[in-house]
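Everyone, describe these structure tokens:
***
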Amino acid sequence: MFVDIAKVLVRAGRGGNGVVSFRHEKYVDKGGPDGGDGGRGGDIVFLATKDLNTLLNFRYKPELKAEKGGDGGKRNKRGKSGAPLIVKVPMGTLVKRDGMVIADLTEDQQQAVVARGGDGGFGNAHFTSSTRQTPKIAELGEAGEEFEAELELKLLADVGLVGFPNAGKSTFLSVVSNARPEIANYEFTTLTPNLGVADVDDGSILIADIPGLIEGASEGKGLGDQFLRHVERTAVLLHMIDVYSDDPAEKYQAIRRELEKYSESLAERPEIIALTKCEGLDDEIIAMQSTALQKVANGAPVVAISSQTHDGVTELLRMLRDEVAGYREREAEIVDEKEEDLPTISLDDQVVSDAWSVRRVSDAESNETDDEDEKIEFIVTGAKIEKFARRTNFDQFESVNRLRDIMRKMGITHELLRQGATGESLIQIGESMPFTLVEQ
């Protein structure tokens, strides 16, 4: 069964917790802290492979979960890191998060971390200093990334076969490659895309046979636009038109209209037009049909072939090979030019991480909470301070006081006081538990 769209919940592993522990050996006086750090949670890694050509497996595995990091132990033992979850996907798989592409796996064995495991929390041995000999602080492990990933498969091929149903696409693919698509003398024989490798002299090209299109396909009619995505990445389009068509020019133009509606860039792709099923037909009829096509083809070459007798097939494959090579070369040059011309404007990663903001909660927002004692007055956001908050164990007053100390050193406390906060003001950092600005 061919599946080219799927959704799956990804859950990277949570980091292990740090621990509070002190040495208690019989002959060690006043043993110091020896609580170890928690291990890092496992990542979720997608691995592209040429051995798969469908997303069917994700229909039966709607959730992917990586291993949790181990908690720290006594004697400074660090928790074991969670094993990454390696997930195999077909080449050509796009991974999206909230509609944004986060990975595009186009090569065999290419890997991408799509969800990162959480960091482990520090144990109390980490917090020893000259002024703090017996810290009773340990951090919680951070949660791993969790979200619904949208997977979309776009077949990777050099040539995409397009045309109306029963135009001879599947027969052509079966003749020039090792692919064995279903073939019959009626429309919509092909219900799923097929891939085949065609040998051309000392090289080869990968050809995709796309289910027959009809007018309105770009708007979802018939088999709809669900298969048009599979020709988006092809270098060359091969329009296949039955030589027995009453109006081959209109057939060609109808397919062109659907391509233009679906994607401007796809409509601009190099193309070759093949008149199919020409075996035993008078040369005059073939010439007449070819002339009609040439008038609307905008310079695209028109060739007559017969998949049954192999007439014109080798010449067509050579033309396709040359067009593919030319397109790939032009695309590489465009990419190089863009990389050379693109100005680089970036902020230092540390600056971005350290940035924070303080926002006073409005009266309208405050009124949404009935409990007067639980009304949050200020919300603090920022990558670095939120990370500290996520790792704070709010059940340990020492840990919360450490968070307050970090806020003071980063200048956040000063800004809170400037905006009118008092010691009793309830503060929330990101999505952490609320706490008072000063220990109560």
Remarks:
- The domain at 5-153 is CATH 2.70.210.12 (Spo0b-associated Gtp-binding Protein; Chain: A,).
